[in-house]
Amino acid sequence: MTDAEIDALSLDAIREQVAVRVMGWHQQEVKDENFSMMAWHEAEGDGYMTFPVDREYHWSGTVIEPFHPECDIRAAWAMEEEIARRGFHREYGNILFKSLRDVGGDGVAFRVAHATPEQRCRAALKAVERMGVQSSA
């Protein structure tokens, strides 16, 4: 995928691409006699539910929210942790820095620290492309 194609992705497409290409997850149906839902699973081992795909899920009094790294800073930070774990944090940081530096003006460090989740996701996808990182799936 080119930078231009990444820049043109919708927010829904960003979410799915980050889950698959950065996090290394795949979708799998989770169901029992009372419900059925799609959930993101880790690609390694037997896999287990990580996040619901499209709606929150209530389990034993706990609310599990869907994975939305494109608009939820907590999910974007989780994505950044995975980037560091997989070893392409320098390329990611360079891309994020350059994309915000190109906006112009002073305070690029401030803009990087306060980058939106969407900006972080687009930089992560560009880093995956440039590093030739394969998903774990």
Number of helices: 6
State the shape: elongated
How large a portion of the residues is in β-strands, by DSSP E? Answer: 15-25%
Radius of gyration: 16 Å
Mean pLDDT: 84
Oligomer: single chain
**How are helices and strands ordered from N to C?**
HHEEEEEHHHH
Measured distance between first and last alpha carbons: 18 Å
* Number of E-type strands: 5
The low-pLDDT segments are: none
Strand order of the largest sheet: 1-2-3
Structural features:
137 residues; alpha+beta; three-stranded antiparallel β-sheet; two-stranded antiparallel sheet; 5 strands; elongated
Task: Give the topology.
Blueprint: H1 3-8, H2 11-22, E1 25-31, E2 36-42, E3 49-52, E4 57-59, E5 62-64, H3 73-86, H4 89-101, H5 108-113, H6 117-131
Antiparallel strand pairs: 1-2, 2-3, 4-5
Helix pairs in contact: 2-6, 3-6, 4-6
